[in-house]
């Protein structure tokens, strides 16, 4: 049982990182990015091909993946979202959905639907034993990396001029404009940070998680659930939400069998939003 | 300082202001009064660049600003204190003030501004770490004004400071505005006609999107039209 809980928590931190990315754009711009998981998929493929073709370790790819998906986020905002954001709110949402479908299909077209693995990365196959609990080093590295990035993001949001401007824009876009904040630039940056989060998560996960074109669907759905569970726009909510979902998934997998682990995840979600419709830390 | 010429503006294709012209000179306190829906807020939203005019000109310090994006209008020296205060409720009082100085990069100037505001509004200093939403209505209005002043504007535009405040508080807020207007040019928009005209150097009366009267505050207070239409005398 201890093993299950530890596994759940390690995965939970990665979920937190992915969900924090999503909660930022969703909270700031009111747009849930349905392509979020597909950005993660692209980052994992980027790490995979860098390893396959030029032998760069996924850990070294971390900064490159962060930067690449940050840029992808900014381009997504500038090229797609900014053009539809003033229209009906459903339009922007559907645009991200369309983008997600496009990316999945593109990945399938370019790289086939096959599952791929990075088997001999720096951290691959290593384990640490704590009593009778076995910890995979790739998972530990990913969890620790996620925690560090979450800390960086929280610091950035709370203590920098741009972080404060993102918060102000999330709270009241028109008034933010009156403060002299270029809200459309803030949106672009926010989309970039959202991308950076999954860019990092992708590089961290690529050394122990199978890489395939449609993996994004699961992560998009899970992170939407985590954000709704934790409270829209709340970083703290995404952090705890991620841990709860990570744990639930692990426990559900243990008791119900892996193929049914999400049963418990969505059940918990449905129960929590009955009690707290705005999520655990919702405004 | 500020010249508005033949301004036509509205929401989508619903026009609200018609050929409206007005002027604010350096050092003045100018009031724009009118009843609900007359178009007062629309006017200052157009000046601050939130609304783009259909036609007409807005000139500030000799420069056309009607096509300047809202966030850049602040840099030109115009601060807009919006109707209903619109403080960032989840952020601290201090953060609200610092956001007001977003266009200023120099930490020293920002801190000096902050201290000036705390001197002008000691209440805000006492509550600097509190969330803005926990302030009373009057305190929030003070915060909104102080936040506007943080950018060190040449022109301060205030929309309906009296909204939802008790008469005593309204009086205090207006006194503060009067004090501020010694250093900063003020354009205020008010439904509270009596008070707004009393403190104004000059005033405009706006009805259904058109200016129907203008002149010195006291003069307008004496006019029959104002007495009948707005003061119920
Ligand atoms: N966001 C909006 N979209 C569409 N129409 C609007 C919008 N805001 C205001 N209007 C319309 O524009 C007209 C003028 O509104 P405005 O807010 O400028 O009036 P006001 O003089 O400020 O009134 P009040 O004293 O009630 O604040 C009104 O008819 C109003 O219905
Ligand atoms: Mg108004």
Brief overview, please?
With 283 residues, chain A is mainly α. Chain A contains eleven helices and two strands.
Description:
The complex is a heterodimer of chains A (283) and B (233). Chain A is an all-alpha fold and 283 residues long. Chain A contains 11 helices and 2 strands, in the order ααααββααααααα. Chain A has a single domain (2-275), classed as ABC transporter involved in vitamin B12 uptake, BtuC, CATH 1.10.3470. In chain A, β1 (127-130) and β2 (133-136) form a beta hairpin. In chain A, α5 runs antiparallel to α8, α9 packs across α10 (235-256) and α9 packs parallel to α11. The relative contact order of chain A is 0.22. Chain B is α/β, with parallel strands linked by helices. Chain B has a single domain, classed as P-loop containing nucleotide triphosphate hydrolases (Rossmann fold), CATH 3.40.50. Chain B is built from 10 helices and 10 strands. Chain B has a 6-stranded mixed sheet with strand order 6-7-8-3-9-10, with helices on both faces. Chain B has a 4-stranded antiparallel sheet with strand order 2-1-4-5, with helices on one face. In chain B, β7, α7 (167-180) and β8 (185-190) form a beta-alpha-beta unit. In chain B, α3 packs parallel to α6 (137-149). Chain B is globular and about 45 Å long. Chains A and B meet through α6 and α7 of A and α2 and α3 of B.
List the defining traits of the structure above.
A: 283 residues; ABC transporter involved in vitamin B12 uptake, BtuC; two-stranded antiparallel ribbon; 75% helix; B: 233 residues; alpha/beta; Rossmann fold; binds adenosine-5'-triphosphate; binds magnesium ion
């Amino acid at each position: 049982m201890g093993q299950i809980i530890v596994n759940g928590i390690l995965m939970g931190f990665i979920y937190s990182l992915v969900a924090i990315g999503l909660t930022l754009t969703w909270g700031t711009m009111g747009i849930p990015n349905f392509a979020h998981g597909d950005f993660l998929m692209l980052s994992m493929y980027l790490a995979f091909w860098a390893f396959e073709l030029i032998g760069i370790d996924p850990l070294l790819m971390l900064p490159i993946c962060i930067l690449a998906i940050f840029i992808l986020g900014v381009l997504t905002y500038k090229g797609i979202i900014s053009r539809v954001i003033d229209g009906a709110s459903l339009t922007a949402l559907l645009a991200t959905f369309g983008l997600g479908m496009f990316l999945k299909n593109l990945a399938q077209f370019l790289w086939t639907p096959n599952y791929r693995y990075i088997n001999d990365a720096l951290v691959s196959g290593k384990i640490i034993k704590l009593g009778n609990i076995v910890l995979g080093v790739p998972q530990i590295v990913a969890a620790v990396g996620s925690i560090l990035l979450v800390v960086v993001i929280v610091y950035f949001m709370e203590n920098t001029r741009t972080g404060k401007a993102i918060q102000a824009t999330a709270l009241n876009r028109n008034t933010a404009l009156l403060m002299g904040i270029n809200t459309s630039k803030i949106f672009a940056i926010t989309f970039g940070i959202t991308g950076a989060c999954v860019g990092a998560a992708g590089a961290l996960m690529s050394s122990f998680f199978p890489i395939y074109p449609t993996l994004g669907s699961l992560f998009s759905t899970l992170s939407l659930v985590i954000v709704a569970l934790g409270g829209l726009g709340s970083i703290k909510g995404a952090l705890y939400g991620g841990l709860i979902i990570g744990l639930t998934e692990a426990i559900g997998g243990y008791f119900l069998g892996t193929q049914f682990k999400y049963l418990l995840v969505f059940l918990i979600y449905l129960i929590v939003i009955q009690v707290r419709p705005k999520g655990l830390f919702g405004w | 300082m500020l010249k508005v010429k033949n301004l036509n503006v509205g929401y989508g294709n619903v026009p609200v202001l018609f050929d409206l012209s007005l002027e604010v000179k350096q050092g003045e306190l100018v009031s724009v009064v009118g009843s609900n829906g007359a178009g007062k807020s629309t006017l200052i939203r157009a000046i601050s660049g939130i609304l783009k005019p259909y036609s007409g000109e807005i000139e500030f310090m000799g420069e056309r600003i009607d096509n300047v994006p809202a966030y850049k209008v602040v840099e030109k020296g115009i601060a807009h204190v919006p109707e209903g205060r619109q403080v960032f409720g989840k952020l601290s009082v201090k953060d609200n003030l610092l956001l007001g100085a977003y266009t200023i990069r120099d930490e020293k100037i920002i801190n000096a501004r902050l201290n000036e505001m705390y001197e002008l509004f000691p209440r805000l200093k006492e509550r600097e770490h509190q969330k803005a939403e926990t302030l009373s209505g009057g305190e929030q209005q003070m915060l909104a004004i102080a936040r506007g002043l943080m950018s060190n504007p040449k022109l301060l535009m205030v929309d309906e400071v009296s909204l939802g405040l008790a008469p005593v508080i309204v009086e205090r807020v207006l006194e503060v505005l009067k004090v501020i207007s010694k250093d900063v040019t003020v354009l205020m928009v008010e439904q509270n006609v009596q008070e707004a005209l009393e403190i104004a150097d000059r005033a405009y009366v706006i009805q259904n999107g058109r200016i129907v009267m203008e002149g010195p505050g006291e003069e307008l207070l004496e006019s029959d039209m104002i007495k009948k239409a707005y003061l119920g005398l």
